[in-house]
Amino acid sequence: MSDANETPVASPFEGIAAADLDPTAAGAARLDEIDSLSHFRARFHMPKGPDGSDAGYFVGNSLGLQPVEARAIVEQELDDWAGLGVEGHFEATRPWYPYHENLRAGFAHVVGALPGEVVAMNSLTANLHLLLMSFHRPEGDRRVILMEDGAFPSDTYAVHSHVAARGGDPEHDVVRIPTRPGEDLLRIEDILDTIDRLGERLATVMLGGVNFRTGQFLDLSAITDAAHAVGAMAGFDLAHAAGNVPIALHDWNVDFAAWCTYKYLNGGPGAVAGAFIHERHATNPDIPRFAGWWGNDPDTRFRMHLEDTFVPVPTAEAWQLSNPPILAMAPLIASLDLFQEAGMLALRAKSRVLTGFLHACLREMLPEGSVVVTPGNAEERGCQLSVRIADRARERFDALAPHGIIADFRPPDVIRLAPVPLYNTFADCLRVAEVLRAL
Ligand SMILES: Cc1ncc(COP(=O)(O)O)c(C=O)c1O
Fold it and tell me: Between the CA of residue 228 and those of 53, 65, 149, 231, 249, what are the distances in Å?
């Protein structure tokens, strides 16, 4: 997290070590009691279980909950559209013309960027293509894009099709870092060695910041340094990282990144995505890019009859193609406000203990032979734990819903559980472990 973006505050969870966690009802109650962020749960709509009480919601890594305030903001836009028509572009409560600016400070906060380095636009996969267009610059023998085994399929499709569309051969130009035989997690030394070994053949590193399947959080700073040391660009898919782990994209010198906002950022289904372009690139007007009118200098954007030379805004906003989708952005304003109110550092301090507590509960209560695949070290994970169930995994998973637990399953045998510090409690964590044990 960039110091410019947040001043550290004392957290009641500071100094609580994994060994101190007591996976019992009394232990959960004690931690919920000291939780200074617990009031944020009431700022979200919590789905209900079959008995009408609050569900145990563990899928904020898939679709974050609706902030209560989101409805009022969406309704305001609908009212302004109804009452003002086209005048809403300039006269709405939040004028639509510069609407993307409403998300600038919030994005900069959650990914550790300068305000001019972030922009809300499009969807995640579309942004990956746009950013690869700018930053993947194959030339001579330098042609390789480095990905990881276990990357999200959309990233693989995007990278392969991108390489092919630009005349490359994905078979040769896409290199994937494997996990070692019998291991689930990538080793940082393998990533760094591969970068070093590829050397002048490496054009671009494009990895997931937090892996969707295992929950592993990579050392993005070390990977970026290694990529730069061999003259390559470093970019990341932050779908599972944004709003989950502290990130300092500016300070780490990352070249580009993209993320979706429907997971930890609670922007709503299909909400608009984010993109980061480091200042040193964002201010360069000569970067190759696919352009559209919303990336043009706003002062000349509407002088269509006079000028048709593209004049990029000297910020990440130059990558915008189209005018902002107001209704897809509105709920995100509510959610990013909550992140600013709570603070990423305070959320992370709680998250480490919350997930550590879930880990402790699962260790006690999982069927024998089951393992938590996610790294045990809190530095190498966000809030998600991926649990490989040894015995009747699907059956156990299917039995969670009738108990009011909403989790997800990755075949053949992994249950993913993501306790989110904005709205999950320590009691939730104990509850899911107890249900798994009872089954
Ligand atoms: C890691 C990762 N990358 C890419 C995507 C695709 O996102 P979108 O449909 O917004 O392009 C997802 C969606 O869940 C994801 O988790």
Answer: 52, 38, 22, 5, 14
